[in-house]
Amino acid sequence: MPIQVKRLLVVFAVFIGVMLGLKYFLTPESWREFGPYRGKALTEIADQEAKYVQMETCAMCHDSIADLKDQGLHISIQCEICHGPGYRHVEDENIDMVIPENSDFCMTCHAINAARSTSIIKQIDAIEHSEGEDCISCHNPHEPWL
Ligand code: HEC
Ligand code: HEC
Ligand code: HEC
Ligand code: HEC
Questions:
Q1: Protein residue closest via CA to atom 35 of ligand 4
Q2: What mean pLDDT do residues 84-113 have?
């Protein structure tokens, strides 16, 4: 065998050896425990604190707002979509919730967007519709249609 081929084989052998070593030391223990997944990922995710508490929890204290919302077209929208995660506020009500401040927020859902069906969500042009006036000066966010 020519010398240059021998040297090439040595280089390959070293390379493969290093790669196998890295694989051995760097692969997490629970790798491929469930099909192609890392088994420990499940418990790691389950251990995270839940940040959203759902509408029913908010309704325990804010029943009049929850009742109002249930009568209107925003019935399907969770409080926390607009007010942010409630897990801290529920434990201590002095920890404030987010209060969406301006119309841009409403427009994240109601802006004209050809990818959304108008039979599912009504869309407006804010300038044409209200000359940019704040939405909540006319619509109650909890019951946009009285
Ligand atoms: C244990 C009772 C309780 C629960 C549960 C609760 N709240 Fe409150 N919330 C209060 C009280 C009391 C206040 C008034 C506190 C204040 O004036 O700072 C308040 C205030 C608020 C405010 C007013 C603005 C501010 O300064 O924070 C918002 C918005 C709010 N809550 C949203 C929510 C949402 C959304 C949920 C569900 C994720 C929720 N709350 C769950 C008791 C509760
Ligand atoms: C579509 C977005 C939206 C949803 C959904 C929503 N809110 Fe609000 N909420 C707002 C906005 C905007 C304000 C500020 C209103 C204002 O300044 O007059 C507000 C104000 C509040 C306030 C403080 C002022 C008040 O009216 O007493 C509380 C408390 C509150 N929301 C609780 C809730 C709870 C509880 C739910 C679920 C049952 C909920 N909100 C769902 C947008 C929303
Ligand atoms: C998370 C998405 C979302 C946000 C944010 C949101 N809405 Fe809505 N809104 C909806 C859905 C869904 C409906 C029910 C379907 C419909 O009627 O368009 C609705 C219905 C309405 C309607 C009644 C439309 C009709 O059918 O006549 C008005 C008015 C309205 N929203 C105003 C607002 C205002 C004002 C804000 C901001 C405070 C707001 N919305 C924020 C999703 C949203
Ligand atoms: C000056 C008062 C006023 C303001 C401010 C206002 N609206 Fe309206 N909105 C109305 C009236 C009145 C209607 C019903 C007549 C119509 O469809 O134009 C309406 C209808 C709607 C509808 C239903 C449209 C449809 O196709 O049926 C949506 C969605 C809506 N508004 C969202 C908003 C949003 C989002 C804002 C803030 C950018 C806003 N509105 C600001 C008065 C207002």
A1: 106
A2: 93
